[in-house]
Design a protein that fits this description.
The structure holds two protein chains of two kinds. Chain A is an all-alpha fold. Chain A contains nine helices and no strands. The N and C termini of chain A lie far apart (about 35 Å). Chain B is an all-alpha fold.
């Protein structure tokens, strides 16, 4: 687990220095761990575990939007798990549960594979439709249809810069919509 | 319609080169821009005191700069700590200490004023040592 933490810290440093590939690898490495811990946290609270993927996505969004608040001299994992724990508590509270989540649930968790493709349409996808048209189109194109920035720009007749701005704003407003109860 | 997590990750990675704005450099830039503005305000509204050459030899003259600079430094440290959410808990003790400093400093300034001229209207403003009494 310690080697894993060091690897994450290194990847996050590279990511904050502008290395998008390292950033992607980091998120891909982190997601299964978050998934397993969220799953376990939901199960322990007696909640249906089918929403764990939404919570994972919420955590990833929060990490993305707050990544400059991570202190590069500190290890990455505790920062990540603090966010994850808060997001899990938020999600449980929205269902009217008062809960205590043990942060060790995250720290000691091994990775879990992604659930199958038959996920129910969750919170994240539902909120996507409530975004301003341009942000929604860009986010759908990049996140749902897996198009690149360039392809999206061509398809929507926008400049690449405008696509990037709309993408960033879309992610930010998605995260703020998820924060609402 | 569902959004798969790996696709969300792709979107986040695509957004990664939107360089996150770092608070430190932004604040430094703002302070740098504010400096000529405050000098201009000072010169146009208050103006330099006529006896600044003699006042300079008073040791309290320097002290007043130290007071304002210490205030500014404490304010910068507090703002940076506020900006950095992840350091919040670790810093709250340090923050408290800075607050004490911030509260204590104006009193020192007042003490200094009383020590020199004793002009009552000067007591609240350390900068007044630069202005004609």
């Amino acid at each position: 687990v310690r080697g894993r933490d060091e690897e994450w810290t290194g990847l996050m440093r590279a990511a904050n220095a502008g290395d998008a590939a390292a950033y992607r690898r980091l998120l891909e490495a982190v997601a299964p761990v978050l998934r397993a811990a969220t799953y376990r946290g939901l199960a322990r609270a007696g909640q249906p575990v089918d929403q764990s993927e939404d919570i994972v996505q919420e955590i990833l969004l929060a990490v993305h939007l707050k990544r400059q608040t991570w202190d590069a001299t500190a290890p990455f994992a505790p920062w990540l798990f603090a966010i994850a724990r808060n997001k899990l508590i938020d999600a449980l509270r929205r269902r009217g549960r008062r809960v205590f989540v043990n942060i060790d649930d995250f720290a000691e968790t091994m990775a879990a594979p992604a659930a199958c493709d038959t996920l129910s349409p969750g919170d994240v996808a539902a909120h996507l439709d409530g975004l301003p048209a341009r942000q929604r189109d860009v986010l759908k194109s990049v996140a749902v249809e897996s198009a690149s920035i360039k392809e999206t720009a061509t398809r929507l007749a926008m400049t690449e810069g405008a696509v990037r701005v709309a993408l960033h704003r879309g992610l930010a407003s998605l995260a703020s919509k998820l924060r609402e109860p | 319609m569902t959004m798969q997590t790996d696709r969300l990750i792709a979107a986040l990675a695509a957004d990664a080169d939107t360089t996150p704005r770092r608070i430190g450099p932004m604040l430094a830039l703002a302070l740098l821009a504010a400096l000529p503005v405050s000098v201009a305000l000072f010169m146009s509204i208050l103006g330099m005191r006529p006896d600044v050459r003699t006042a300079m030899h008073n040791p309290f003259f320097d002290l007043k700069f130290m007071v304002t600079l210490a205030l500014a430094f404490a304010a910068i440290v507090v703002s940076l700590h506020h900006a950095n959410a992840s350091r919040w808990t670790r810093s709250s003790v340090a923050l408290l200490r800075h607050r004490v400093v911030v509260v204590a400093l104006p009193d020192m300034g007042r003490l200094a004023e009383n020590g020199t001229s004793g002009a009552p209207e000067c007591r609240r403003c350390p900068l007044k040592s630069l202005i004609g009494g």
